[in-house]
Input
Amino acid sequence: MTVKTEQKIMDAALKIFAKEGYKSSTTKAIAEESGFTEMTLFRKFKTKRNLYNKVLTQNVEKMIEDYKESVFTNEKFENTRDFIEDYVKNTLKISYKNFEIFYLSVNEENRLIEPIMADTANITGKYLKEHISNKKIDYRTLAITINSFLYVVNLERYHGRNSSFGRPIKDVIESFIDLVNCMVEDK
Output
């Protein structure tokens, strides 16, 4: 099997797993989405679980690389609010770009992904601590809070809704940035 064929199957599997969940996804649906037969799928991956694990691993690694390139930068900011705005907006873009894997990692129980997500929360917490100075903050919790909010916003966008909480998403994001800034100001 060529790398191109394998990738087409994995891309189709990600789409189906995100839409249906692991348990409800069928290898038949994945094969149909990819344009290949189930035999081709099983020849390469042997089981649905192997395919799922490979899809998770590959896409989480890709998402983490996207975060490293676009979010975790060495850029300097004039103030905390500018940093928070940059962090929230870049994280929003990356998590939307990788929404299907982000969705799976949040909604599917998976021992493979749990340590990676814990490491990501720790790394994100350390990054926030480098840019926000407040000894009263648990930075890991702040990272989880921001990512949870962005998940809800991206879920709305993913389903084609341009508003959330009765307001345009753009306004909701700006209000959230202001809220986070108020929470982290050391006064």
